[in-house]
Amino acid sequence: MKDCGISQNGDGISGFGHRGVVGESIEFQGVRGKSHNNAGIVGVSDHFDGVFGISHNPSTPGVSGHNWDNANHPNEGGLAGFFEGNVIITGTITAHNDIVCGKADFAEDFDVLKQPEPGEVMVLTTSGALEQSTKAYDKKVVGVISGAGGYKPGIILDKQNNSENRKPIAMMGKVYCKVDAETFPIETGDMLTTSHIPGYAMKAIDPFKAFGAVIGKALAPLSEGRGLIPILVVLQ
Questions:
Q1: Helices and strands counted in the chain (H then E)
Q2: End-to-end CA distance of the chain
Q3: How many domains, in total, are found in the chain?
Q4: What is the pLDDT of residue 230?
Q5: How do 166-180 and 226-233 pair as beta strands?
Q6: Considering the domain boundaries, does residue 10 fall inside one?
Q7: Bridge-based pairing state of the strands 130-132 and 121-124
Q8: Mean pLDDT (10-residue bins), the chain, 236 residues
Q9: Dihedral, CA atoms, 159, 164, 169, 175, nearest 10 degrees?
Q10: What is the pLDDT of residue 31?
Q11: Is 223 inside a domain boundary?
Q12: Given this model, what pLDDT does residue 2 score?
């Protein structure tokens, strides 16, 4: 190691000049910071960005954040980034798919009753919390609990720490939904509404009753019985 700074109580390395500290490497990190009890790297500026990153490779980000455990495995639910304050984005927000599930819907957290399962259709109650739908063509329908089948929420609004009695409700996008096709077979493209089976959707047959009670559009068919199919959430 060409230069090494070690301190138990103060700065390991301190630099002052046109650039306070410069690090360059051909094959590995130019500068690396690690702390056991505080921030690994802190950037502060009086007149410019606290931390500024540039990548000349179009396939890699200028700034990247990961949340890993000590074995370099992703921490489930861990934060890779946190911003306190306003955020400006001039490009596109993309929620990449992981190995198992796609990030497919725009969801919002709600208080729920009776611990419903992902894929169930939810309606409003007088308390403001949500519960399973229990009647056909219910105009109090809000959406479907996200996370069933092969889809997970891409964006979740109103996420709170006391999440034990809260669930993400898909308000827009693709989500797997429990549907009942025992009375009316469901074809791709059919509009769906609430059914009398708790938490299940069904094909909307009556357009007058369906107005204001439509959940979305079926993206796959179900000819009979009950099952889980992908739908496009289109509340109307």
A1: 1, 10
A2: 65
A3: 1
A4: 95
A5: antiparallel
A6: no
A7: antiparallel
A8: 62 72 82 80 84 84 79 71 82 59 74 92 94 96 90 81 81 92 95 96 95 95 96 88
A9: 110
A10: 81
A11: yes
A12: 55
Structure tokens at 70: 């000590």
Q: Residue 79 and residue 4: Cα distance in Å, rounded?
A: 31
Let me know if residue 80 belongs to a domain: no
Tokens of 174: 């693709």
DSSP notation for 92-105: -------SS-EEEE
| Residue 185, domain member (yes or no) | yes
What pLDDT is attached to residue 194?
97
CA distances from 26 to 5, 34, 55, 57, 166 (A): 21, 21, 15, 15, 48
Comparing C-alpha atoms, which of 212, 209, 232 is closest to residue 124? 212
74: number of Cβ within 10 Å: 12
Q: What is the pLDDT of residue 102?
A: 62
Q: Of all helices (H) and strands (E), which one includes residue 208?
A: helix 207-210
φ, ψ for residue 174 (rounded to 5)?
-100, 140
What domain range is 161 assigned to?
102-233
Q: In this predicted structure, what is the pLDDT of residue 99?
A: 44
For residue 195, what is the domain's CATH number?
2.40.300.10
CA pair distance 32, 158, nearest whole angstrom: 35
Indicate the pairing of strand 130-132 with strand 151-157. unpaired
pLDDT at 212: 93
